[in-house]
Specification:
Layout (H helix, E strand, L loop, with lengths): L12 H8 L12 H8 L17 E7 L2 E6 L9 H12 L7 E6 L12 H9 L5
Parallel strand pairs: 2-3
Antiparallel strand pairs: 1-2
């Protein structure tokens, strides 16, 4: 005698509808230059309460296929915070959905001067007693 076959288990109709009515997972926002610059504005110079963007340390940013390439300078070649700032940049940018890699190139040309400070950066430094 052949074995009896069982009918496949059926889920109640309400469960089937609920599964079909699940909203799709939200799409990740596009990785844009604006999102990267906004994230960089959250990275502050460890010595001053000023973002690296407002300090004028960011010379260039490119975004391509999940890689952010950043050209950066520092206020002095002997800046003791260079490695710390680069680590902070990588940590912050890698939290952006879609960023898989961060490449940082340090450039000393043109040299940084106080002329690169944004108005917001100037105001923050003045509040700290720095004349700019």
């Amino acid at each position: 005698m052949p074995p009896r076959m069982r009918a496949p288990e059926q889920r109640p109709a309400t469960e089937q509808r609920a599964a079909l009515e699940q909203p799709p997972a939200p799409a990740q926002p596009a990785l844009t230059l604006e999102r990267v610059l906004s994230a960089l504005a959250e990275v502050t110079d460890p010595e001053w309460p000023v973002s690296i963007v407002d300090m004028g340390l960011v010379y260039g940013v490119a975004v391509e296929a999940g890689t952010v390439t950043l050209t950066l300078t520092f206020t002095a070649t002997a800046c003791p915070c260079m490695e710390m700032i680069q680590d902070d940049i990588r940590e912050r940018l890698l939290r952006i959905p879609g960023v898989r890699d961060v490449a940082i190139a340090v450039s000393w040309d043109p040299p940084w001067t106080k002329d690169r400070l944004s108005e917001r950066g100037r105001q923050a430094l003045r509040r700290c007693g720095v004349s700019v």
